[in-house]
Every structure is written in C-alpha cells, then in structure tokens.
Design goal:
With 395 residues, this protein is α/β, with parallel strands linked by helices. It is built from ten helices and 17 strands.
C-alpha cells in the first residue's frame, strides 16, 4: 500500500527466499502450521494507521462505558455462565477490511470485534521472520508506541502470568496440538514458559485444579483460556473432570464471558464511520430494500460458519430464532496489495491488551490476512498464491 516499498519488495522477491523463510518458521518448533503463510508482509501508510487507531479508540469508548456489562448481558447464555468474571477483558481484537472511500482514500471498516486472545506470539515470530529473510526498511515495525520485543513480551507476561509462577499458569485448549493455531501455543510456551494443556487432562479435587507438568502433579492457579465454547460443546467425545460452569479456585487470563460480551453481539451498539451499520435481526421492523448490500451472521458461531453472503428475503423469512442473528452492511474490500499474480485484498486485525489496573486497553501488535477470493478464509483462497497469514509493518 506504500507504492515504492511494494514495488521494491516485489522486484527483489524470489521463491527460494520464500521457501527459506518458511523452513525457518517450521524449524522453530518443529511444526508446520495448517494455514498458509503469505509471501509478503503489508506496508501500512500513515494515513491508514491514523484511521485504524481512531477506529480502535472509538470502538473502545463503547467497551469502556460504565453500562457495557448491562448492554452485553444478554450475550452470555444462561447455560454458559462461568464464575469469577473479571471486571474487563484482558484481550481485545478488532478486525478491519481495508477499503476505499468515496474519494479513493484508504479506510478501515470493522468486520468484527472479539474479546478473546489471538496469535500474539506467532505474529511476533512471523514479523521477525520477514525481517530476517526479506528487505524490510528500517523504521518499520509490527509493534506500536516504540515498543521492542522485550517490552512486548513483558506486557504479555504481566497480562497472562501476572503475580503467579509460570508453572501454575496453563494455556487451556481442546486437543491443543491439533488446533490450527497450535504454532502460537508452541511459541507461547517457549516465550513465557507456560504449558498448553488439553481440558481432558485437568484433574479436579474439590475447588482445586491440577495438571501434570513433566510428570509432576501441579496446581493450576490461573488459566489462559483459548477454548471456544462452540467447539467444546460439539466435542461430546471429550472425557473431562473440569467444567467451566463449576466453582474453582482459579484466576483467568481471558475470562470466557468476554468471548460473548465482545463479539458480533457488540456490532449494533457501535456508531462510527469505521463501522458498517449492523442490526439485531429480531429488532428490525422492516427489512432493507437493498438486501444484496447486507450479510447475515449468526451471533453464536466461529470461523465464519453460518454466514450468508448472497442474501435474499427467503433466507430471512426461514429463520426461526431471529434473536440469534445480526444483519450487517457488506464491506467491500479493495484489492490494494499489488502482487506478481494480481492484486490481493487485506484484512487487518489490531491486537490489543488490557492490563490489570489500566484504564483502557492498548494496541500492541497486528495480524494481516491476504485474500484473492470472495471472502477472507482458507476455503476461498485455495490454489492461490500471495495470500494467507501476514503482518503489517507500520512506520
């Protein structure tokens, strides 16, 4: 998106350097990610950076409102109430499609906000891999506010581990080594010294929770939660002693309620030029005439399941549980990343952390996904190159 940097990068690019770059990533943890890693990072111009920061601040203003807990209460389903809710989320993600406004200028448009962890560790590794294997200009970084890697990891350590010993903190998932995001778990273990544990391996004795670390029974004092309830509910084959809805003597880095409170459920509460209009389906008195300009999204799903892009009135009339859906005005991604095989679209995720005692969350890192398909996602980009996971470098 910065023409001179894009032209220089594309001109110097070689497939052999790309393969060396990939192999370097794979060697770090003897692990090949299940997702595609793009041939290029994205160079973010200052005007887009300013708008991204402004958009994040405006959305954060709503999340920081004194009545936000009340506004988001209906997002937490009755059968999924977890004791020990924290006063605010620890993790916050904001996904923006890169679009063009009526004047042809870059503008971010919010796709979704998430009160859930993202790939904080892998994105740092990925940025360093691009810097090591390609010509990334000096003065550009994936981190913000002059932060270096040492400070970045310290903020993550404060947020995830806090006052606990690393051995008493676990990253909790369902079969973590089988997850698409497993490389982030390996990186977290290496950078912070905490183990990733399957929920089926936890042992419960009264209110206390334990796991086995190097064969030794070890108390769990804090859980860095990476489990998405939608997935866990579908896994009735998982035998376990630990149930989220029961009382346990544990703290949370990422209390499960915030996955629901800050989600698609939040979108209709937002009013910003960077947020497409969204409506709870059951609150709409009449449907928009231009339904082709809207997308239907279920409130309770993950990884894009259940989304209807090419919408018609029959789709809406056939939905019985309208309270579980939102209607969101479509975002038209602009093909702004020039590549040797045609332009790509970009979605930028701003990775944020809300440290204990801080008045607001702060932007710390970013994640980019490049696409040449109808939507951003693996199934829309099969057999395409210069697409997939990437990172933005900001001046």
């Amino acid at each position: 998106m910065i023409p001179e940097l894009r032209e220089a990068y594309n001109r110097k690019f070689s497939d052999s350097a790309y393969q060396t770059f990939l192999q370097w990533i794979y060697r770090q943890y003897d692990h090949v990610p299940k997702f595609r890693i793009a041939e290029t990072p994205v160079f973010i111009p200052n005007d887009l950076k300013t708008k991204l920061f402004q958009a994040c601040e405006e959305i954060t203003d709503v999340i920081c409102r004194p009545d936000f807990l009340e506004l988001s209460q209906s997002a937490v389903l009755a059968g999924q109430i977890v004791p020990g809710e924290t006063p605010h989320t620890a993790f916050l993600q904001m996904d923006f499609g890169v679009c063009l406004d009526e004047n042809g200028q870059f503008t971010p448009q919010l796709i979704e906000a998430q009160g859930f962890p993202s790939l904080y560790f892998f994105q740092d590794l990925l940025a360093r891999a691009y810097q090591e294997h390609f010509d990334i200009p000096a003065g550009y970084s994936h981190l913000f506010d002059g932060m270096d890697q040492t400070e970045y990891l310290q903020i993550l350590r404060n947020t995830i581990i806090g006052d606990h010993a690393p051995e008493n903190v676990i990253l909790l998932e369902v079969e973590p080594e089988k997850q698409t995001t497993a490389i982030d778990f390996f990186a977290c273990r290496q950078m912070l010294g905490i183990d990733f544990v399957c929920v089926s391996d936890l042992k419960v004795e009264g209110r206390e929770v334990f796991y086995f670390r190097n064969g030794k029974k070890t108390k769990v004092e804090k859980i860095f939660n990476r489990i998405i309830f939608d997935e866990l509910i579908q896994r009735d084959d998982i035998r376990r002693e630990f149930y989220f809805t029961e009382e346990h003597d544990v703290d949370w880095a990422g209390h499960p309620h915030w996955f629901f409170r800050i989600s698609k459920h939040t979108l209709p509460l937002l009013n910003s030029r960077y947020v497409p209009k969204s409506y709870f389906l059951h609150e709409l008195e009449e449907m928009p005439e231009d339904l082709h300009n809207y997308v239907l999204k279920p409130l309770y799903s993950f990884a894009g399941t259940g989304v209807i892009i090419n919408l018609n009135r029959y789709d809406l009339d056939s939905i019985q549980d309208k309270e579980n859906y939102i209607l969101q005005r479509k975002v038209e991604y602009a093909p702004v990343i020039q590549t040797p095989s045609g332009p790509a679209k970009a979605e930028i995720r701003m990775l944020m952390l809300w440290e204990r005692g801080a008045p607001r969350p702060r932007i710390v890192n970013n994640l980019v996904r490049l696409s040449k398909g109808e939507m951003v996602g693996v199934r829309y980009n099969k057999d395409k190159d210069w697409v997939g996971a990437s990172v933005g470098f900001f001046q």
